[in-house]
Amino acid sequence: MAAQTRNVLVWIMILQVGYFLSGCMPRLPVRTGKKIQEDQLQALRPGETTKKQIFGQFGAPMAIVGKDEIVAVLSPTAWTGNHLKIGNHEEIDSNPFIELFSDHPLSEYHRVYYYYSSWSTGTSYFLFIGSHETSKTTLDRLWILINEKTGMMEDYHFKKGS
Question: In the predicted model, is pLDDT for residue 143 greater than 60?
Answer without folding.
Answer: yes
